[in-house]
Amino acid sequence: MTTLSRRTLLGLGAATAAAITVPGCSGKSGPMRVSWYGPDPVTKALNKALDAWKSSGGAEYTAESAPFDDYWDKLATQTSGNNAPDVLRMSMSYFSDYAGRSALKDLGSLGIDTSGLDKDVAASGVADGKDYGIGQSSISYSMYVDEGAIKKAGGTVPAAGWTWEKFAEFARDYAGSVPGSFGSSDQAGNFQLFEVYARQHGTEMFSDDGGKLLTTKDTVQEWFQYWADLRTAKAAPPQNVSGETTAIEKSLIATGKSPLQFGWVQQVTFYQPLVKSPLAVLPVPQGKAGDLSGQFVKGLDLWCVSAASKHPEDAAKLIGFLLNDEKAIKAIGILLGVPPSKKARDLVSADAGSAGARAIKYVEDLAGKVGPSPKPWPKGYGELLTGFGRIAENIGLGKSNPAAGAQEFTEMAGKTLGQ
Amino acid sequence: MRRVLAHAGLTAGALIMLYPLLWMITASLRPNTEIFRHPGLIPEHPTLANYALGWSSTGTSFGIYLMNSLIICAAVVIGNLLTCSLTAYAFARLTFVGRKTLFALMLATIMLPGHVTLIAQYSIFRKLNWIDTFWPMIVPSFLATDAFFVFLMVQFIRSIPVELDDAARIDGCGAWGIYRRIILPLLSPALVTTAIFSFIWTWNNFFSQLIYLSTRTRLTVPVALRGFLDATGSSEWGALFAMSVVTLVPVVVVFVVFQRRILAGMAHTGLK
């Protein structure tokens, strides 16, 4: 189960499916199927939005959901078995795999109203000139800061975040002044934070056609070294601690052992209930102070319609409804991320003191200051994502070192990309 | 003195083995925020809230998932007992054309990795319109597709003296009679082993249940348990542990009830 990647499964499945498909012998077409991944609150919210769709006279549907990891196993099997759901939630991590295998429908002619959406988000699902998906949310990478803990330790938090240099300094000071705690959790294996870092070094991470890694080996090595130094200085936790603190409830910020955590902006709402003082949402560290060009705002989760859908019109209408209808917007709130339109953000940000409102404000403040949003992540991104984490772990455990790890990663990228 | 030491050592070992289970049980009695904060076994503020939450928080009662799992498990156990024993009897005692080849083919299915057949199976079940029903889990077990159990029983039947068959034949039994009156009763240790392992493996079989079932009210226990965890959001650990404890109950009951027979069965079949 673990040795076979989902991508291989998807490819293998496509071949098998083609080999045994009997023409003219397809299953009956029931009502439209809607499928998504996410924790329980997401499922509840989407069911509520779908109820609104039904009571507004929308077409019949059935709903399916699964946790993130399981969702991809299931979707790969369904897609290969020619039984993909009509409307499906797609993550940018797997988007190119599916779009590149013609598993998704071009939404261009289906007339979904995206006029209210942020431009970067509306275009997030465009690949090879075709629109395979529509962004569900405007999100950006961010840093959550437990200001209460930092003030107690006598530190201050710069409103625009730190430079990497100042960040390391802060992490060392904090760890030094609060016994038993770390300045930051270890982010060496965080591929998505690394993308921001890589963009701060002047290039996109991937070439436009997705065939090549543009980020240099030196940058990768520098990154691994940066975190290795923080671990040596005890400003970041050793690997065995990091390995046990990946879940949100177990994270160092939730257990009060570090004042900093990184993640996509909307995830702050998952951390907030576990931390007593309000979490500030700040940009991630920068190369030059105040320069946010490494960061970007993007729709990282998309609504897509499967290529084999027998209900493309209804599917398109439903997507339009979820994006634009007031009741649907309110039901979803910021559970899928910061809403992708100004109208939706105004509708859901009523609760001014909440973590959600701070997430929305963060995204709105970033607009215009961040760099251009990158092309959809290339085919094989999912593999690089897990590979990067594994390499960082090996370095953390002392089985590898930053130079060897960087070499391994660039080689892996060479093999995985452009296939 | 030596016995005391041995006992102390064994008890310590058993406690270490049991620790994760005990931890899960006590964790299920803790509020969500305290689960990972305090090591140790004794909860500071014990509460049954997780059980209430887990039972109903998915919007569908957990009882429905348990019932679904029980239905599938019961059907698989019955299917495996009936058809695997029949198939094994045929392989072990009857002579027919292609017996050796078919036996080798059957063994080969044990060696095929599941992923190779997954998509093809999925396509077949889709064409039969069985997706999102229990049939993909149940029907194969009525076709003796679990080659492991067939093999187990073939080996067992081969150890039963053929003279018994001959005696039965003299008394007028046909092939069917021999199976029912001679083989089946003598096979009971292997049947018990098959029943237990069919039950436990099906009870824990996450993947095919994930792939084939979609509608909430048709989900089974392993799929529902995974629903409490999600890497992209907050996980309901308390509810997960509480429902895991609930999920263990049927397995423990099966073990307690059949415990002696399992041991007897293992002694006979030499299963690890």
TrEMBL record, chain A:
Q: Name one Pfam family in it.
A: SBP_bac_8
Ranges annotated as spanning the membrane: none
Q: Which domain of life is it from?
A: Bacteria
Q: Which PANTHER family match?
A: ABC TRANSPORTER SUBSTRATE-BINDING PROTEIN YESO-RELATED, ARABINOSE-BINDING PROTEIN-RELATED
Q: What name is this protein filed under? A: Extracellular solute-binding protein
User: From which source organism is this entry?
Assistant: Kribbella sindirgiensis
TrEMBL record, chain B:
The source's superkingdom equals Bacteria
Q: In the record, which residues are listed under signal peptide?
A: none
Q: Which CDD domains match?
A: TM_PBP2
- Per the record, what is one GO cellular component? plasma membrane
**Location in or out of the cell:** Cell membrane
**Which of UniProt's keywords are assigned here?**
Cell membrane, Membrane, Transmembrane, Transmembrane helix, Transport
Q: Name one GO biological process term.
A: transmembrane transport
Instruction: Give the way it sits in the membrane.
Output: Multi-pass membrane protein
One Pfam family per UniProt: BPD_transp_1
- Which residue ranges run through the membrane? 7-26, 62-91, 103-125, 137-157, 178-203, 237-258
In this chain the ABC transmembrane type-1 domain maps to 66-258
The family assignment reads: Belongs to the binding-protein-dependent transport system permease family.
Task: Supply the name of the protein.
Answer: Carbohydrate ABC transporter permease
Protein's organism: Kribbella sindirgiensis
